[in-house]
Amino acid sequence: MTYNPVYEREPFTDFEQVTPSTPLEALNLNWRERDLPERIRTKHVHRLHPYLGKFVPQLAEIFLRKYQPKVVCDPFGGSGTTLVEANALGLDSVGCDISAFNCLLMKVKTDRYDLFVLERDILDIIEKVRLGVAFPLFSKSLDDLDTDNEYLKRWFAPKALRELLYYRSFIPNYRYQDVLKVILSRSARSSRLTTHFDLDFPKSPQTTPYECYKHSRICQPTDDALQFLSRYSLDTLRRIREFSQIRTDAKVTILHGDAREAAFPEIDAVITSPPYVGLIDYHEQHRYAYELLDLPIRNEQEIGAASKGSSKRAQEAYIAQIEQVFSNIRKCLNKNGVVVILVHDKNGLYKDLASQVGFRLKEKYERHVNRRTGRRAGDFFEEILIWEPK
Ligand SMILES: C[S@@+](CC[C@H](N)C(=O)[O-])C[C@H]1O[C@@H](n2cnc3c(N)ncnc32)[C@H](O)[C@@H]1O
Questions:
Q1: Whole-model pTM?
Q2: Ligand 1 mean position to 301 CA, how many Å?
Q3: Closest Cα to atom 12, ligand 1: which residue?
Q4: What is the pLDDT of residues 289-303, one digit of tens each?
């Protein structure tokens, strides 16, 4: 059955009311900005770091409340939306991603922290960097922080790069190093030599003043990282504190690997949004983080990468790989389990997929997306496919 509730009807926002008996057709999920504002979609740790391709956390919440799995899996874990929502509801979760940076994000979002130590770490390191920048003669010399990394030298002004490298040099002294790495990465993203309107996929460094469409004036590329390091330090602390109020002791497992062959444990549900063909390069969008943090790159195993295009051949290769992922999932899903897939399948590639990998399509739901978290793209319809094992 396909549902697509009338758009004019009031969208559903009473998420806590969803129970296993809530009928899907009762839910109008066609939210507009005013129904589900960005600040709610990006609450607490969901906005710890920009990530292109995230889904709305409230969707994960609805399906978790409806199906109440003991263990939910997201084979394409991304920035960890399913894992964070599952944990808040006390449900165990498993997330897998081929991108090391995304696994770092999932971990930082879902870890348990001693908030006293976390605050001390975050404030101490930023204070050291501030002092070092203000009084270079009295501190570890910033000039010793040379790098031969061509990407970093190309994409950052010398001053910004020194500040980032200076921050990085202190990270090993702290307990919550992964949080500091995320602050460093987020600051690096903002302090690249880019225009303000093209932070997602800038093509080449912007080294001269430019006409800024975002601010309707002439803007200057930044040469400063310290302001971002300071701002994101406080923001990160606030967000982790906020999530810690609702965080539970439910188990979170993160697998860095290829979902086609990952060894998933026994699971009762899957809630996922697969990469789509030729749309996004998931490693490339966080390239600065890979370069600064020296993370392993496995982009050859990235399914549907934009760099591989969206030709007929790329589509065939893509769906064959997605098939392998769901065949792998099928082996560890309980016989009463459920799979929820969010996909904007504009090429109809998922049409016959369920039966090919041992599932049957139970329900299909269409949702009008007029503003996805972090996406600049225009309106489109997203499908929610609900499968059960055959
Ligand atoms: C659409 S995003 C998922 C976003 C996620 N739902 C969220 O809200 O953050 C798809 C993810 O699949 C990952 N991916 C691509 N190929 C993969 C593979 N072979 N195995 C595991 N993950 C892969 C990408 O790195 C990306 O993070």
A1: 0.94
A2: 11
A3: 76
A4: 999 999 999 999 999
Virtual torsion, Cα 233, 215, 40, 305, nearest 10 deg: -80
DSSP per residue, 286-307? GHHHHHHHT----GGG-TT-GG
Nearest CA owner, ligand 1 atom 8? 54
* Cβ contacts of 126-129, under 8 Å, gap ≥ 24: 126/167, 126/229, 126/230, 126/233, 128/170, 129/163, 129/166, 129/167, 129/170, 129/226, 129/229
3-class DSSP state for residue 8? coil
* CB atoms inside a 10 Å sphere around CB 19: 9
Structure tokens, 114:
């001693």
| Ligand 1 lined by 276 (C-beta under 6 Å) | no
Query: Residue 99 has what pLDDT?
Result: 98
CA distance 304 to 192: 27
**Nearest atom, ligand 1, residue 302 CA:** 16
Q: Quote the ligand 1 centre to 77 CA distance (angstroms).
A: 6
Is 98's C-beta closer than 6 angstroms to any atom of ligand 1?
Answer: yes
In the structure, what pLDDT confidence band is assigned to residue 245 with cuts at 50, 70 and 90?
very high
Which H/E stretch holds residue 186?
helix 177-191
Question: CB 225: neighbour CB atoms within 10 A?
Answer: 27
Residue closest by Cα to atom 19 of ligand 1 = 258
Domains of the chain: 2-110+250-283+300-389 (3.40.50.150), 115-244 (no CATH)
